[in-house]
């Protein structure tokens, strides 16, 4: 993490007003949350529509913060404490992060996409880890606050940083890309997430392509080559590119895919090199191809890529498979959901073998715009009769999934709930040893509570 004198911090953040007596004091790390202050850190109070972090500066100092940034328009700065005055604390945080990054000899890989960006980030970080000292985005620190904090938490000897870039509207990824200046940029796919804000898949594609705005002059864009919206737009950009996808027209494509409870094995073509990823889902082969292509670009050998992928550490609630004490198995994919990712998870569940029954627990997919009901209905219709034994849905939009599923399954094989406790009670009554459960919904539905209930059942 960043370790600098306050004199350096003031210069790097574009601040002023620090008392001379504090200039040689040092800070170790940066925090925007007074509830998790690290001793010796710099506290950066962020102001939003419904909160003002300046109110907690005194608490941060009392709990070990070494210094604070302070918006010069805010009254009552802390007295007798190291305070650096800035025009805007968020802008100062971002400026500090970019200045710190530029002082390090670090390569940057940026990852965005409608689905799979967190998985791809994890896969790429693992693929690089056998050859480089790697730093990656933790959790959901992928926005205009989280990405600067990710940069500032980099150890000084980091050689490659893998940064996830999220968005909810136009211009956000452009900003993040210009802040990070990636050497390699990845677009995993174009889906339906954020349809409400961006209006169409075309709008989503244009927003994701903002990642090239900060791409280094010799940088490369890696993108899903089977997506027509990218095929149309990328060639007009006059940048170096590598494509990945199912079709043999891509720079990298898979063959001989074999799936099991332990993960997915496949051959990367051209070249015929065999890889295995310890993560479920054939759709994750595309994410792995993106990671392999980017790692190769950054100089990692295939043997080191394989070694790194074997040690994959996935962000939680992404297709986590758990064998429970009562004899059933749960796939927890409750972190987020879109029509594309939910259909892929359903297909994964249908394809897995060796289970007595296969059960889907599916909840609302949020932020899909005016066609949300149709998207949920189509998701239910995606289920294959004879491959799924029971469907439970949760939420008002989940009722549309149930309606679609009822067109494929027999009467009594689909149940819909708007009360989570009723859902969990019904699932627990139905569960038997040998069952496989898939649990998936948007994060706001908190459907991991159903996962916890299944895991907590004792023998």
CATH topology of the largest domain: UDP-N-acetylmuramoyl-L-alanine:D-glutamate ligase
Give the mean pLDDT.
95
Number of strands: 21
Percent of residues in β-strands = 15-25%
Radius of gyration: 24 Å
Second-tier CATH architecture of the largest domain? 3-Layer(aba) Sandwich
Find the structural class using helix and strand composition. alpha/beta
Which key features would you list for this structure?
459 residues; alpha/beta; Udp-n-acetylmuramoylalanyl-d-glutamate--2,6- Diaminopimelate Ligase, Chain: A, domain 1; UDP-N-acetylmuramoyl-L-alanine:D-glutamate ligase; Protein-Tyrosine Phosphatase, Chain A; 3 domains; six-stranded mixed sheet; 16 helices
What do these coordinates show?
This protein has 459 residues and is an alpha/beta fold. The chain has 3 domains: 3-87, Udp-n-acetylmuramoylalanyl-d-glutamate--2,6- Diaminopimelate Ligase, Chain: A, domain 1; 104-309, UDP-N-acetylmuramoyl-L-alanine:D-glutamate ligase, CATH 3.40.1190.10; 320-456, Protein-Tyrosine Phosphatase, Chain A (Alpha-Beta Complex), CATH 3.90.190.20. The chain has 16 helices and 21 strands. The protein has helices at 6-13, 57-62, 89-103, 117-129, 146-152, 172-180, 195-198, 201-208, 228-233, 284-297, 302-309, 339-351, 372-381, 398-406, 420-430, 448-456, and strands at residues 3-5, 26-28, 30-31, 42-43, 67-71, 83-86, 107-112, 134-136, 160-164, 184-187, 220-224, 240-244, 253-260, 263-269, 273-277, 320-323, 329-333, 357-363, 390-394, 414-417, 435-440. The protein has a 6-stranded parallel β-sheet with strand order 8-9-7-10-11-12, sandwiched between helices. A 6-stranded mixed β-sheet has the order 16-17-21-18-19-20, with helices on both faces. Strand 14 (263-269) and strand 15 form a beta hairpin. It starts with a strand and ends with a helix. The relative contact order is 0.09.
């Amino acid at each position: 993490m960043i370790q600098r004198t306050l004199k350096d911090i003031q210069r790097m953040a574009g601040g002023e007003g620090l008392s001379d007596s504090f200039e040689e004091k040092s800070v170790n790390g940066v925090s925007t949350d007074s509830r998790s202050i690290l001793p010796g850190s710099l506290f950066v109070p962020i102001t939003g529509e419904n909160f003002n972090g300046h109110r907690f500066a005194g608490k941060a100092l009392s709990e070990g913060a070494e210094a604070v940034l302070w918006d010069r328009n805010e009254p009552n700065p802390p007295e007798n404490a190291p305070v650096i005055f800035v025009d805007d604390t968020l802008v100062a945080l971002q400026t500090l992060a970019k200045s710190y990054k530029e002082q390090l000899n670090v390569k940057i890989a940026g990852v965005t996409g409608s689905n799979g960006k967190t998985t791809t980030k994890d896969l790429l970080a693992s693929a690089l880890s056998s050859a480089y000292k790697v730093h990656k985005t933790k959790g959901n620190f992928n926005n205009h606050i989280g990405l600067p904090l990710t940069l500032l938490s980099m150890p000084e000897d980091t050689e490659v940083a893998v940064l996830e870039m999220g968005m909810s509207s136009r211009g956000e990824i452009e900003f993040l890309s210009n802040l990070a200046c990636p050497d390699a940029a990845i677009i995993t796919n174009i889906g339906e997430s954020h349809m409400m804000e961006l209006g169409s898949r075309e709008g989503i594609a244009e927003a994701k392509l903002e990642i090239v705005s900060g791409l280094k002059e010799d940088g490369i864009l890696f993108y899903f080559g089977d997506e027509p919206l990218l095929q149309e737009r990328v060639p007009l950009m006059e940048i170096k590119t590598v494509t990945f996808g199912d079709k043999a027209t891509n720079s990298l494509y898979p063959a001989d895919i074999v799936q099991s409870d332990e993960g997915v094995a496949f051959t990367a073509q051209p070249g015929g090199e065999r890889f295995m990823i310890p993560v479920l889902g054939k759709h994750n082969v595309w994410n792995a191809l993106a990671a392999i292509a980017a790692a190769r670009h950054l100089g990692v050998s295939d043997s080191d890529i394989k070694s790194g992928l074997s040690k994959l550490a996935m962000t939680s609630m992404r297709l986590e498979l758990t064998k429970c004490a009562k004899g059933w198995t749960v796939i927890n994919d409750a972190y987020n959901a879109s029509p594309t990712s939910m259909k892929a998870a359903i297909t994964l569940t249908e394809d897995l073998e060796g289970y007595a029954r296969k059960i889907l627990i599916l909840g609302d997919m949020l932020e899909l715009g005016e066609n949300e009901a149709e998207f949920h209905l189509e998701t239910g219709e995606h289920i294959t009769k004879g491959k799924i034994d029971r469907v439970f849905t949760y939420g008002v939009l989940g009722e549309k999934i149930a309606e679609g599923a009822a067109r494929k399954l027999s009467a009594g094989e689909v149940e819909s709930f708007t009360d989570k406790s009723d859902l969990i009670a019904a699932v627990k009554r139905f569960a038997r040893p040998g069952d496989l459960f898939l649990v998936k919904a948007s994060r706001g539905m908190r459907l991991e509570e159903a996962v916890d209930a299944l895991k907590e059942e004792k023998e």
